[in-house]
TrEMBL record:
Pfam families: MerR_1. Residues 72-99 form a coiled coil. CDD domains: HTH_MerR-like. It comes from Streptomyces glaucescens. This is MerR-family transcriptional regulator.
Length: 244
């Protein structure tokens, strides 16, 4: 094979292959009488291995070390390893497409695929078009995706979110959208929101903190100033109770 042919076969550029020759990563094959390099199947396997390792984030020195470990191995063994790598990539792509399909199948405004525990929790929630309730659903989805909220915590939230009175609390928070930060409704609403949280949930909070550094500021930025005062007080209560 010529350099252009092997480059097309393994999905690399001829420039990249020449660079690998230059840095000693790939020995230059012998040239034919016509002056062209003649690449073998083993060269193609080696270049496929280089491409795979660099795609995994390895530097060229790390790739060189990995290739040194391949020295003396049978071609069939290396091919089987590459085939297994491709099978894993195919499985990963199928899983990503499955998740993408689930997203495409969801109605507009949905938060995306969630765990069975969170799906069961959201199914208990009373219907409401409250913007504050929508933000809470997004927040729960984030906690679910990152693994911050475990199954036990989500189960404890069921009694809270299934309470029809929670809608009134959301609506009171919505009503503060254009209010000043000294609005007299802020303090009692924050207290009522904290009181709505099951005591068992506070006991289940991690002792190393419940608010990631920087997250509180990012979350509060999603609310109007008066609403942020309420949410900030509730988050502070979570932090204090989580340390208790």
């Amino acid at each position: 094979m010529r350099i252009g042919e092997i480059a097309a076969l393994v999905g690399l550029t001829t420039r990249a292959i020449r660079h690998y020759h230059h840095v000693g990563l790939l020995p230059e094959p012998e040239r034919r009488p016509n002056g062209y390099r003649a690449y073998s199947v083993r060269d193609a396997v080696l270049l496929a291995r280089v491409r795979r390792l660099t795609e995994l984030g390895l530097g060229l020195q790390e790739v060189r070390d990995a290739l040194a470990d391949d020295a003396g191995r049978e071609l069939t063994e290396i091919l089987e390893e590459l085939d297994a790598d491709l099978a894993r990539q195919e499985a990963a792509v199928r899983e990503r497409r499955r998740r993408l399909g689930a997203l495409l199948a969801e109605p507009p405004g949905a938060t995306g695929p969630v765990s069975p525990a969170l799906a069961a929790l959201l199914a208990q929630a009373p219907g409401t078009d409250s913007p504050s309730a929508a933000k809470d659903r997004e927040y729960l989805t984030l906690l679910d995706t990152t693994g911050t909220a475990d199954r036990k915590m989500l189960a404890l939230l069921e009694t809270m979110i299934a309470d029809p009175g929670i809608v009134e609390l959301y609506e009171r928070l919505d009503a503060l959208a254009d209010a000043p930060t000294d609005d007299p409704r802020i303090v009692p609403l924050a207290a009522d929101l904290v009181a709505a949280v099951p005591e068992e949930l506070f006991a289940a909070l991690p002792r190393d903190g419940v608010v990631v550094t920087g997250f509180k500021e990012a979350l509060l930025a999603e609310y109007s100033p008066a609403q942020a005062e309420v949410v900030g007080r509730v988050m502070d209560a979570f932090v204090e109770r989580g340390r208790g």
